[in-house]
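Quick start: what a row looks like.
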Amino acid sequence: MPMAQLNVERPVASALPEALPATDGPAASSETRLGTTMPGTAIPGTAMRSPAYGFPYLPFGGDVVDRLVHAWQGRFTLSISPSAVTLAFADWAMHLGNAPGKQAVLADKAVRKLVRLMVYAGAAAVDRDTPPCIDPLPGDRRFAHPDWRQFPYTLYAQSFLLAQQWVHNATTGIPGLSQANARIVPFVARQLLDVAAPSNNPFTNPETLRTVFATGGMNFAFGMANWTEDVLRLMTGRRPKGLDAFQVGRDVAVTPGSVVFRNELIELIQYAPSTASVHAEPVLIVPAWIMKYYILDLSPENSLVRYLVGRGFTVFVISWRNPGPELRDCGLDDYRRLGVMAALDAIDAICETGKTPPPVHACGYCLGGTLLTIAAAAMARDGDPRLKTLTLLAAQTDFTEAGELMLFINESQVAYLEDIMWEAGYLDTAQMAGAFQMLRSNDLIWSQVVQEYLRGRRPEVNDLMAWNADGTRLPYRMHSEYMHQLLLGNDLSEGRYRVDGRPVVLSDIRAPIFAVGTRRDHVAPWRSVYKINLQSDTTTTFLLTDGGHNAGIVAGPDRPDRQYRMSERGPDDRYVDPDLWLESTPAASGSWWRAWADWLDRRSDAEPMAARPVGSAEHGLGPLCPAPGHYVLER
């Protein structure tokens, strides 16, 4: 089978313009963009001069300077546009300043909260069992320890929670504030307020003080040692402490298999069968390229791949390449063509048995699910019948309510991020990690600062934490297209996304759909994932499970502590809104993996077949190397 090739004919923007304008006027304006050829080129080694004034033109484009400055700024702003934040707060300040009624309400609330705090302080000083005047938000565990019920620490916690509530009131519900800015302002205000939380101060945190007395103050010495080690590891490019205990191919990603196909963008892994017979239909898993694929093949007890192989499925997984500057012009369609479609072509060749290849159970996770949906819609439009079923794990197809990641997705932020990516040709791992950490700063930043640096304790590393630290990069062109066409434009949901020059629509898909959402997902909120019910005209099964974006998917087959809800909707059934669905759908105990595997069983050929060998030498797709392959090891 011929290997799919990357389109290398797209021009790459150079650092300097190819030519400079020969004359003044509109054609020679400072708006000239990079790579634009203008008439009247200069003699090599000489500077172009204005014939009207005699002054030389700048030897570079102004946008080059802008991009370099923004790229430099982004290293200190976590890739967040200062202009976007400034405009958001200016919008908030002007509308609040012109809302005297809102100001009066805020003043009244401030006085009432102060009175509540004073009454509570007097009562708590006398009676330690005085109930708090305000409770933390759900999921906020900073003040859960019993020591926070003691005076005066309870007063510190209650003061902070009342201030947090007032700040929320002051930054929300402002009449006239734009929707985008209405998301940014309370988020940034909460981040700033969290810096001053009493849990982050060693003198106002009773848990830290207890550690100080127990260790004679040595916790600060241990914390300084931890901080020094982390800084040295960061400066020398080494992995964080404890992650070396989980090496890819030794401790995680150990399910036996081989790479059977490789191109510029993917390695396709086929896993060795562990049963004498298998289902005729293979399973193709398309993970997100923002993550390494082995989140679905962690430790053996947490490996979805191993579980599917044990259930009698022939499993293929795409392992994406970790792109560098050489792939800066690789776009979304290249990921579809060289990823999903190239993998399907290889699977067809490997699984054919002298007749038409069996259709494939395709499964996509996160962005991989979005890409798989695009490919499935294009295949349905073109009459390609190779998909038996379509499974979407925490994957969105409508981005109007795409969670907290949309906080800073507006034109200002996207342009700023494009300038940052332009310099290197990709979005770096550290830049993405900083954005994700800000979304859950209490859990991913401040709690670690307190535990590791104030109390001097290192957390125990598990396989999921080790995977989470093994990040990837995103190509410049692909991420730019993703932000413009999907996040900003929502083109896929609204029928404007084009494949091969023609639009694709999700309602063309006829393969049964199995969609999984997780209840505490901040990346792909389950109500956003649920919108597949509005877009599909085929039988759709929706399952909602416990956990977050990653921990909810990596559930393990033996988890009696987990719960999930599942229901099926036919193409002629009436739509049920997500809140009513949640209320009316009963919960079941256990891992959702079993429910999904049973669903695949029911939609597979009743006649099993002998287990397939790995690869197909006849088609030039013999094993290239053992799993997990080479691309997953790239850093």
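That is the whole record. The longest helix spans residues 100-126. Confidence is low (pLDDT under 50) at residues 1-45.
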